[in-house]
Amino acid sequence: MVTVQDVKARWDEIQNDDERILFIVGGPGSGKSLIIRELAEQYGWKYLEAKHLIEEEFLLVPHEERPQKAEETIRTALSRSNTEVVLLDGINVLFAPILNLEPLEILKTVSKAHPLIVGWRGHVEGDQLFLEHNNNPKFAEVTIQNPKHVIVID
Asked: Which residues belong to any copy of the ATPase AAA-type core domain (predicted)?
């Protein structure tokens, strides 16, 4: 079983990497959100739901312009958190087709300035990270560049 201390130890290993993002991966009910909330409590880091990174005004941006605007919008939201590390949960919302985003690329880029620990509902197969959404276990797929940036809690 993965503990808060395990996550913190892994964070300490990767916090000086170029991309400062750690994924806590598990299925529904696996304890991802619990670990993230415990990290917030123990270390004073800010817990955020991903849906709060995209404001309603973002949906007024023309569909084709959203990818360019999204990084700025997310960076601004993370800047307001004023914390050493942002604990991000509910990441599925950023993959909604209506947003027209490449969420992982955006998160990797913003993690250089705003370190992130992300709860990821899904699983890992080899070097592929799958996002589960609406009962689809392979709703989205991304390649893991560095396995140290992923902790599986299932």
From this structure: 23-94
Q: What is the DSSP string of 125-137?
A: ETTEEEEEETTEE
Sign of CA dihedral 65, 118, 87, 16: negative
Residue 90: left if φ>0, alpha if ψ -120 to 50, beta else—which one? left
pLDDT band, very low/low/confident/very high, at 8 (cuts 50, 70, 90): very high
Give dist(CA 149, CA 145) in Å, integer: 8
Global pTM reads 0.92
Domain that holds residue 129: 4-152
Confirm if 112 and 19 have CB atoms less than 8 A apart.
yes
Cα–Cα nearest to 119, from 23, 30, 44? 23
- DSSP annotation of 16 reads T
pLDDT digits (tens, 9 = 90+) for 45-59: 999 999 888 877 788
Number of domains in the chain: 1
